[in-house]
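Supplementary notes (optional reading)

For those who missed the lab, this is the record we used. Protein: Sulfotransferase. Length: 394 residues.
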Amino acid sequence: MDGPFDLPAVLASAQRKEALTDWGPGKFEGPLRVLLDDYAGADLNAVGVHILRSGIVHSLRMRLRAQEWIRRHPEILDEPVAPPIVVVGMMRSGTTLLQRLLAADPRFVCAYGWEVVEVAPRLDYRFTGVDPRIAISEAREAKSRELAPELFAIHPMYAREAEEEIVFLADAFLSHVPESGAHLPHYRSWLDTQDFTPAYDHLHRMLQFVQWQKHRRGLHGQHWVLKSPAHLGYLDLLRARFPGLHIVHMHRDPRTTIASGASLNATLHAMHADVVDTHRVGAQWLERMGWTNDRAMTTRDGWSDYEDQVTDIGFDDAVADPIGQVARVYDAVGIPLTAEAEGAMRRWLAGRPREAARPPYDLPAYGLRPEQVDERFALYHKRFGQYIEGAAHA
């Protein structure tokens, strides 16, 4: 009898729910098979199995539905994606703040939470009136607040706020998202040897699709504002897929970012399994973030011709003077920071969602010592110490 993570059954479930069969371009079945095989052997409880399988089926449904929209409207693939501004950095380094400030400028475009969660509308939608996906996403947001308050406090996702596009990478099944919520040793190590080009091709395709939808609703912008900590390990692929992009690299003391990331991952693991080895979660997160930052620094070392298209910003500076730091980005990309744009940013700062207090977290809870983190990130401190709070202890 087939298990819940049987590949043919999962594919068939998505096709049955959408009454569609065309997956479109991109060979995603191989990565998906590796992921499903590891899920099948993971120590998941019944709730975890349901959540994770449902998430995969949803990703597949979006792929099917998006492909049908593109079949009906092939002009979608003619949408030019102008060089974006991409905010990168470790989790809790201020990436969300910078993205949402930039996205407040009406000259820019972003993917909102409701667009990320359900990238493809139902096939009978005619782009008139209020998009029904907004209400669906708002209901999902409310349900998350109610049923998973700790998760929402650590990693809130708002339907009407600019959101990171990591979901589009995850939908290609070449992503580090799954390892954040389950112990997947084989998939985790397998990913380190893979070419993520198909994931970035899928991201580009989905941005074209979202942009086409925005145009149908009468919305136009000059540049995308993207954001995801996941891009940090793949800056070379990001640049290859989006030539001319400008990168905003956020920095913060790894002692803080590692503890926060481990806390989020442990919370996700606890949603899917009855027993969570928090020390293993901490060790894996330290390893992953060290690996990610090493790759980012190596890539940037080879960018002698491109460093003027990267703006480095420290978390403390962004919090103390957000408009001033954003102005540095505008100067770097050669776009004037207009009074209208600055006013929109200040209104967003005044009215932005007030998040609940995050649960306390510290390194020892995840089997880590501050000195251990300092040692792993010694080169990072050496290179970016001027942007990092408390860098003197490095």
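If you only remember one thing from this example: Residues 46-72 form the longest helix (27 residues).
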